[in-house]
């Protein structure tokens, strides 16, 4: 029985290692149904939101230049749904970005929406729900784009694994959403489990022999897991041969957790970040924030008689969740042969200097990335503050807490609807005398739906400015994700961003291109991008609860140039009403007698 | 502290007793927001779906002839919502019936829909969610229509109370829905608690001194409740004066439970059923099925030194839920003064003869109700069977299990859309050789969305035919509710309905007018109505889980005559697409390049 499980596991993983043969066709078709199912992702049963009965959703494997055609049917009973293709820029198809209230109407139960878009360059990506907190419900999967036939990656490897990292709560997403919007406020708390490819262990540990009293570095509950391999919460083992090089594709779909990833006794060479090549550098572990992806190369140069633990542990917040674990299984050892060495120790959660040192190691690979324009046309400084609005705890950006409108921006901007959102321009910066180091003296903020209108093809600098939260001496980490664009990360700094001083130290030589960047406690992060993609695009903290609490903004550029919005993308709210109330005979009939 | 609670309780109930003064205006305006909140309806905390923070929703009190104008805003995060005004016929406003997929599109999060309709006659009604299983989530409230100024009821009373009865689960509605749609099937089980006006006691009983071993007639968990009166799960006490007559308005919003209602030591005189006057008759207790309402008169003719238990207990299914209890509080006794007598004993759950005897006592009040036409133009026999469809457990009607389409019937019929639902006529009856007394030999059935098209102003007989379910020797009770009409209940019978025989015994003299009628195990129930209300109308089992599993049909009559459908009611699905794809310039732009 155990042998059978092992074989199945091995075959399953082999399928993951080998990319399918190049497809003759350049368009790939998928028929997906989103629905809930009862599953035990961490050995505890609950509802998960899956696709075609799978959790995580099916892995998409494409080649650069392919067109993906995903017919998504909503099989939920009362909830809308959308899917965001995280890292895909959607040039020419802004309605396919899958962001409710921004790029499209939520797909109603029973309805089908076609996501059709081109994956224009190779990279490690993922996809996930982007309505309410449905990502937290488990609506995510991997999206891997290989180089086009005949093209070559700037590094070699013998095999690869995709590891999609996430965090998991036992409380339902509806309870989480309501708690966050309640008076008194109810925080979601730390996750019960961390998952690797949708698998974790809450009720047992398969490294229990290494549990150190008072330590959170090994998984908890004391009991040793007994897996045959086919269990829903059995870790997915990574089978490798000695003296080979493997590419690990990491993606973090976490709702909250910043993670540190490591493989015991093995170096990791970072070669890709957010779908862009970076100058290779070796590390013992790496930090990965929600919304980020990395590729690392691992060489199986250790004692092949042993297996080794692979771990992901919480950083950036005081951890209360055991590490996610799986095994690097040197064949022909049995997959579950206990590693003789303990799992890697996750670095201290609040050693932010260590985290910053890692961030600063990331540079674009020369010759494989465009360089940033030397100057920007506009600088927008976004101060994040924790506020109360009408008694509710919220996050605000320049004193406005984002509340997404019922009508998606793409349609309401395109058709110049007056009342679908607040048309006033949001603030470009914050007050010069604002004290970043203390809680707000007067925390009252407003709810808003304003849009930063960007001139098409202009170069925009955005500075994320962190500050003290509501509580004294607390400033949190926020990973910000930009839709529709990659951006260059020009620099990180401490305290207040002072342009004249900071800009002298901007990295304009080899800044990494990313779509997600973190702002450290009490610090700032400066990014630059070219607003060259007509559409409406969210830019937001990728912590699901923080976005729910208003931590985001919306950019829009060249929307008047957008052509071909499918009717289904805007068949709701004010755009539906405006376009349905035409003047033909039927229209007359529809107005009240 | 106790005294304060008692006073507050007393004042609160006084407010319920006294109808507000007649309004100068004939239109009442309400602004409602639907949202989830954490509450403890039965002393156990969970999410409830409420209105303006209230659970149950606010009571509406109107006069016959009033127009209600309810601006309903959806404050849920990802779920649509509608509200059905149960018992209101919606003459001329079929889009205001609040039935998702039938009369309107679900209202999306952040959107507002205006329900504007006339309450044309006096009666005891309620309102509730009608999308997915949102009624089970707690979305319901009372709707009481008094006689118009100058009119008189055909009975007298000194005061009144509204008692809205419901059942409550600790499992979330989402889990319930998914379980019912899963393979293997997961039944919701019996409710954890029964609630009176949203209040029950799961963790304690306030009649614990009467608990009899092995009996389910008194509330459980053994522990005596200690209430001050202000607790969310404290029962709402009914304060009365001796030697007065009170009207108790009962409405059952249960998801599953058939209930028996009684007041210890007191007779109940039934005077109203489903908003129609009936010939008064006295009983010790009455059965009330989901979807039904009754008014009973109670005279406080018992020993005024005591309080008395009021109870509602489960019938029709093997009960596993303790009685709902509250107190008839003869003033000046303290409200929580323990009654010396035990709560009423709920009659045996499977004594269906007793239930039928009660049903047969209900007759229309002479001179206050229209009589039925002596003949019908059409007879539709609806056999209900429990089936499997593609491995899923479903309920079917004449072998079709209802799956509601994404586009509401009202719009798709009005605009003659070809593919919004299955246009074929559903079967008028079932096979003559079908064996009602056994499980189906071949239980395969189909999912469908067909509509019974009724000729406007024709008289239609519908026979509900019960049968054996999937399990041997099981046939369940089903209370069927008709939207948009009252119907006459012409008769009940055992076994197979044989028209020639049965019709000779139809009550055409004084059949009660109702909107909900029960069909007993292995029996049939015959109803008659005039299809005089242009619109599309659901007719379905009011057991929430059964409707979810397909137990319903749709009637439509005179839809071509419907004028003035508000655009918001049909701004989804195929009606939105059809009407948005007009030929003007903008329309051109919206089609794909």
From TrEMBL, chains A, B:
Subcellular location: Secreted
Gene3D superfamilies, alphabetized: Cupredoxins - blue copper proteins
Stored InterPro entries: Cu-oxidase-like_N, Cu-oxidase_2nd, Cu-oxidase_C, Cu-oxidase_fam, Cu_oxidase_CS, Cu_oxidase_Cu_BS, Cupredoxin, CuRO_1_AAO
Superkingdom of source: Eukaryota
Key words of the record: Copper, Disulfide bond, Glycoprotein, Metal-binding, Oxidoreductase, Repeat, Secreted, Signal
Claim: Signal is one of the keywords in the record: yes
A cellular-component GO term for this protein: plasmodesma
Main location: secreted
Name of one Pfam family that matches: Cu-oxidase
EC number of the protein: 1.10.3.3
Keyword Signal: yes
Catalysis performed (reactions): 4 L-ascorbate + O2 = 4 monodehydro-L-ascorbate radical + 2 H2O
Signal sequence coordinates: 1-24
Gene Ontology MF terms in the entry: copper ion binding; L-ascorbate oxidase activity
Domain Plastocyanin-like: 36-146, 161-332, 442-558
Cofactor(s) needed by this chain: Cu cation
Assembly mode: Dimer.
PANTHER family: FI03373P-RELATED (PTHR11709:SF394), MULTI-COPPER OXIDASE (PTHR11709)
Family statement drawn from the similarity comment of this UniProt entry: Belongs to the multicopper oxidase family.
Name of the protein: L-ascorbate oxidase
Natural source organism: Rhodamnia argentea
Record lineage: Eukaryota, Viridiplantae, Streptophyta, Embryophyta, Tracheophyta
Protein's gene: LOC115735537
